Amino acid sequence: MASHRRPKQPSRARVTVLTATAAAAVALTSQAAHADPKPTKSEVKEKVDKLYHEAEVATEKANGAKEQQDKLKKQADALQDKVARGQDELNTLRGELGSLATAQYRSGGLDPSVQLLLSSDPDSFLDQASALDQLTAKQAESLQKIQAKQRTLAQQRKEAQGKLDDLADVRETLNENKKKYQGKLAAAQKLLNTLTAAERAKMAEDDQRASRAAGDRVELGNEVPASARGAAALAAAATQLGKPYVSGGSGPNSYDCSGLTQWAYAQAGVQITRTTYTQVNDGVQIGRGALKPGDLVFFSNTSHVGLYAGNNQVLHAPYPGKVVRYEAMEYLGSFQFGVRI
Q1: Distance set, CA 282 to CA 8, 185, 295 (Å)
Q2: Residue 53 is a catalytic residue
């Protein structure tokens, strides 16, 4: 007779393992299907440019905080020196008062009327009494000087402490902006690392080609400079073509955007301020149609500045990873206004 045994059922543990394996396979397939595609070279460039712009904003804010820090430190140091000198003067006044008190003690003793009665030389005694009165008056004057000096010293100490507190706040702001800058750079580099070496090389080649083309357009423009000083500043900046952008750089080996414009005008014998946010006030503001070579040009809410080179081209220090170069205005973000020094 044929056997009709029931087929052996898989164990519960085996079913659980198989189910889990199948679920994991489905999840991985689903994740693969929904994974974000690798960004294209143009998408990476757009995001990197945005991050570099944000890094430059942090750089200019850090430059402003650094300038404020240096100014506050000088003020605090001057006040502390004044406090130290005031303390020395107070110590001198106290010493003088002590000497007066000692002299008064030595002249004292008996009641003046008794001393007069006992004195063998009344005229001499009266002279001494007069001197004692003068000594007492001088002592009172010294006390007044000491009290005035103490009040002045207390005020100076308070003012110096206020400057030191402000200095601590500014240093904290400076450090925060440096961290922001470094964070944006790290994020940009992470994005760039998603490209192949060939793609990165092609991006650099495109940048260099665009810069050369911009330089050629400057020559074709051949416009009259805004002034002799503007012409000298632009000529000085042109000698720095190829120098790297470095946050906080103000020459002569590296620059950030406002560091380059400040350095260039210094070569023309003109001192302008350090940051984009203050350079906007270093001259007369003008519109795009009035621009001439040598004028300062501001972009992106005045967070970026360059020198107008003519024919709608700008000579500037772009952003981290780039060098001082010519570039067409339309590639620099939203134009704000020009400033003629």
Answers
A1: 92, 30, 11
A2: no
Identify whether 316 is a catalytic site residue.
yes
21-44 pLDDT per residue, tens: 445 444 444 444 455 567 787 788
- Tokens 């006044």 locate to 93
Q: What is the pLDDT of residues 94-146, one digit of tens each?
A: 777 666 566 555 555 444 544 444 455 555 555 555 555 555 676 667 667 77
Catalytic residue among 4, 34, 53, 316: 316
For 324, the token pair is 């001082």
Does 189 score more than 80 pLDDT? Answer: yes
4 among known catalytic residues? no
